Amino acid sequence: MTPLAARFAARELRAGVRGFRIFLACLALGVAAIAAAGSTAEAFRQGLASQAREILGGDLSITVQQRRFSPKERAYFASLGRVSVAAANRAMAEAPSGERRLVDLRGIEGDYPLAGKVTLNGAPSLAAALTPDGDAWGAAVEQSLLDRLHLKLGDRFLAGNVPIVARAVLLEEPDRLARGFALGPRVLTRMGALQAGGFLTPGLPFGETVRIALRPGLKPKPTMAAIKKAFPGEAFRIRERDDAAPGVNRVIDQLEYFLGFIGLASLVAGGLGVFGAVSAYLEARKPAIATLKALGAQGALIRDLYLIQIGVLAALGVAIGLAAGAAAPLLLGAIVRDKLPVPALFAVYPWPLAKAAAFGLLSAAAFSLAPLARARATPPASLFRSDLAGALRLGPEIIGAGLAAAGLAALAIVTAPTPLAAGIMIGGVAGAFLLLWALGSGAARAAGRARVAARGPMRIGLANLAGPRSAARTAAPAIGLGVGLLAAVVLIQSSLLAEVTEVAPQTAPALVFTDIPGDRAAEFDAVVRRAFGQPLTRDTYLRVPFLTGRIVKVRGRQVDTKRLVQSERWAYDNDVSLSAIGPEPPNPGITDGGWWPANYAGPPLVALDEDVAGATDLKIGQSVTLSILGRDIDARVAALRKVEFGSFGASFALVISPDALAGAHLHDVAIAKASRPQEQRVIRALAGPFPQVNVISVREQLEAATELFDRVALAVRGAAAVAALAGLLVLAGAIAARARERTREAATLKVLGASRAQILAAYVLEYGAVGAIAGAAGVALGYAAAWPVVVKVFKIHWSVDWAGVGALLAGAAALAAIGGLLAAFQALSKRPAAALRTE
Q: How many domains does the chain have?
């Protein structure tokens, strides 16, 4: 770039950025969205990293399921440093009034907590809170349990058959995040309480965890390897402090990419605004460009002159976006810091801002170089004739635009947590953009043919819609892309919400009973039947044995889980719930093979979920080896099932014929459909004869899920609206770019006798049609994007929120029509003589 080009560019920039406001707004909006998403995610990552040891509860965490650690294992762990032990199981808490509530009962021993501290109300320390009161174990409980059971501190209640006194309100545990979701309020007490109540009996669904604060000189990763070597074959789940909350980290990664993708889509949608702003600016500079060319300026000088200006303004737009994106998380932290479920360190982080800046600059280059190439290549004579519509030829600008677009896609894929999914999403946006552009062009041509038969304002509106600078070509793709993203979010949300609020309550059980003693199953059924006041049928009540196990061999060969897709390993590298059922259960969902006879007593047979079978290509008649209750059982596949997890039925991935487990002392689980009064009656009826049985209210869990989903959905819809805002900016840019031409057109129409009302109606029809076309296309694209996510990924029922879809369509048409109305008022604001005198 020559000094002369830089000097000319500086002179033109002194005139201000009047023609580049839309350019700046489009860039700033997309960059701000990407920067805010990245900065917020980084704040959560840094918060997790800064408290990783407290979240895990030490340097290492080792967990086993359905058993306790042996004395040998405990001694080995104690040799590594300071140790704390915790075990947890579900229990029914019962107040003296008879009120009952499922709780997460957790017992501790040793130096708990090794890191961080337990926050309490009502007791000076954790030791004081856990001090017994006669035969009652001391405990710290969550306030929600006190409220539900109408208790106050100092009152007693039963957890199963164990007396407990509530001595403190449990506010916070340092390792709560690492432990995950709880079905009920948390109760923290001594390990002896769980032992006394029989909650730690081998085979019950409890887990015991040892946390270790390593002694000086020991490092987590080598120590993990040493533990695995010392106890080969043990099903330990070992985590170190850098892996304190893996599930949360995955959610943060996915959320960052989703929100960042919306920002990227906003940049792509706003790219038309960038293109239009640059084209309009260069059109306004036609006399200057023509004069420079007539005086001998080369195309390179013209290119450099305006490339410098565009580069400076692009940097300004990116800077505005970075400032807004960096400030947004800081503002969020100031407002909701104390309400966040995950620790966060809100600050300005360079890497998310650098990534957002790269996206913004690449977007500016991809969309602004083409009009620059056209201006550079147009001969002076054409410029003096106000003709800037020369053909594009392959040159440095077009090559640069192509490289920038490729770089934009590559950066999105490289920085995504799952490159394949990112590639699919980028390809989908690019395809949608091209489809919308083609649709807009087709609409313009159709308007040209239809105007022949139209009259009055309709004819004027259709003529404008068919013109070379029609908003159908410029604004419709951007508006459609924004509406498409919003539609996809609304449709996915409506299906998820319908699943939680409508489908699940109809198909799922109302109550789940766990830890039913198998030898007292008939007595349990009788208590439930009396509480319900009606006979128990297979359509409303189902009780089956419950245990856990995993598949260890397929067709006689050991399963190598490393060769399986990560999402399909769950039944092969973890214990999963299974049952032993004789008669065919209701709604078995068999897709291949058949159920065994009710009195079958032959070699073990198994019915598998079809997804589990598909992971290793299992077929009917082939053999599998199951590890159940510490022994391997060889079985033959008799049936493949499509299991609707959470529905009313035998929702187990594995079901084995009962004779294979003859003689084993099993616990049962049961599910029932019940009204609210029946729920309360059965919970009270079970308190005396079956205090150890846990009753889970599915209705309560669904209501809690609905409340949480509503809060998350509102935030996601707000983020998706950013892309729709980018489309509106492009519409504003298209209106602004044609303001002078519209003024001349309106003046001509008035001189020829058109009324003010006719001109207003023509413009409203033109832009309203653009909004309606873009809105309809966007909704169709959103439908196409949302359906596979709902049906194939989430595997739930497809439900359309027609009110939301209608609102999107009406909103797109109305906003575009309002834009046309504003354009008309602006065009009519000048008197015809003054407007035509400038020509």
A: 4
